[in-house]
Automatic annotation (TrEMBL):
Source organism per UniProt: Exobacillus caeni
PANTHER family on file: AMINO ACID IMPORT ATP-BINDING PROTEIN, METHIONINE IMPORT ATP-BINDING PROTEIN METN 2
Record family assignment: Belongs to the ABC transporter superfamily.
Pfam families: ABC_tran, NIL
PROSITE patterns: ABC_TRANSPORTER_1 (PS00211), ABC_TRANSPORTER_2 (PS50893)
BP GO annotations: amino acid transport
Any one annotated GO CC term: plasma membrane
Gene3D superfamilies: 3.30.70.260, P-loop containing nucleotide triphosphate hydrolases
Protein name: Methionine ABC transporter ATP-binding protein
Length: 341
């Protein structure tokens, strides 16, 4: 549905030429939630702004449903843009307008009659869960409610694509989750294609079907979320995946264990889908002469199934440990020896 081909954007800054986006090629399917993750300065904002031509590519094409946006100008471009809406990190609401007046704004611009507008605003208020707050001003709303207004406004003209520019970065974790749940609901109910940019792997884990990792303007890795989580190829991707493990004091624990059990092996196990739901640890304990000490673990859901990470200390003869590791690998569990004491 969305095809980005050979996309480049260079800026002539005072400090010299900046390649903000460098040869990006992505194909996004209809109805999919596609996430682009990267650190600050990676080029995410520039890339997402090229999807609705807020930023014009220096080179390459952006096509939506086969239509090359980069060729459109004036009226045609404005019309095409109605199909590609955007939600912003800092909401970008009109502070002197109430919730319903903010949501009605894009309908006014599109020339929708006042009766139709009222009907549509009522639907949207319900859709985003803002009943009872219609007449409030943005300053009277919580961050999550403000973003709900932003989402309702973005959906007003029935777009085909919703672009989310760090839509939850200004929100606390609980509110972030409620907004992410809302985006999943909308994606399912309306079959809307969602493209989001973020620096948080939690956002990718919770709602995306596929992910692209961006570094220095380039997409260095992309794929289905669970595949990328289980088998990250690039160092930067591994760093992002490790955000999910919440290591806390794990390094201190590892040092301590290394001293106490010099014959042990600390390993990170990664489980996805079915392997996350099987009693693998008890199987290993039954079949092999090893002891397992669980150091930390977490299991969470993605759009495509369960994803679990477990750090354990394996103790026993080297041969038995190796056999246990081979057994786990043969059951589609990722095994990474993180410390060879
Ligand atoms: N209008 C501009 N003029 C000059 N340089 C720019 C411009 N916009 C972006 N850049 C540069 O392009 C690079 C990518 O910026 P971009 O904002 O797209 O990254 P990002 O991944 O979205 O980071 P952040 O989350 O911090 O916004 C940076 O080096 C930035 O300084």
């Amino acid at each position: 549905m969305i095809t980005l081909k050979g996309l480049h954007k260079t800026f002539n800054a005072k400090s010299g030429v900046v390649k903000a986006v460098d040869d990006v090629n992505i194909e996004i399917e209809k109805g999919e939630i596609f996430g682009i993750i990267g650190y600050s300065g990676a080029g995410k904002s520039t890339l997402i702004r090229m999807l609705n031509l807020l930023e014009r590519p220096t080179d390459g094409t952006v096509s939506i449903d086969g239509m090359d946006l980069s060729r459109l100008k004036g009226k045609e471009l404005r019309k095409a843009r109605q199909e590609i809406s955007m939600v912003f990190q800092h909401f970008n609401l009109l502070w002197s307008r109430t919730v319903k007046e903010n949501i009605a704004f894009p309908l006014e611009i599109a020339g929708v009659s006042s009766t139709e507008r009222k009907k549509r605003v009522d639907e949207l208020v319900k859709l985003v869960g803002l009943e009872g707050r219609e007449n409030a001003y943005p300053s009277q709303l919580s961050g999550g409610q403000k973003q709900r207004v932003g989402i309702a406004r973005a959906l007003a003209n029935n777009p085909k694509v919703l672009l989310c520019d760090e839509a939850t970065s200004a929100l606390d974790p609980k509110t972030t989750d409620s907004i992410l749940d809302l985006l999943v609901d909308i994606n399912k109910q309306l079959g809307l294609t969602i493209v989001l940019i973020t620096h948080e792997m939690h956002v990718i884990r919770k709602i995306c079907h596929r992910v692209a990792v961006m570094e220095n303007g380039r997409i260095v890795e992309q794929g289905h979320v669970l595949e990328v989580f289980q088998n990250p190829k690039e160092d930067i991707t591994r760093d992002f995946v490790n955000q999910l493990a919440d290591p806390g004091d794990i390094h201190k624990t590892l040092d301590h264990l290394a001293e106490e059990y010099p014959e042990g092996k600390v390993v990170n196990l990664t489980f996805v889908q079915e392997s996350a739901e099987k009693p693998l640890i008890s199987d290993v304990l039954r079949k092999f002469a090893v002891d397992i000490n669980i150091l930390q673990g977490k299991i969470s859901q993605t759009q495509e199934g369960a994803y679990g990470k477990l750090s354990v200390l394996l103790q026993g003869e080297e041969k038995d440990i190796q056999e246990a590791i081979a057994y786990m690998e043969s059951h589609h569990v990722g095994v990474e020896v993180i410390q060879n004491a």
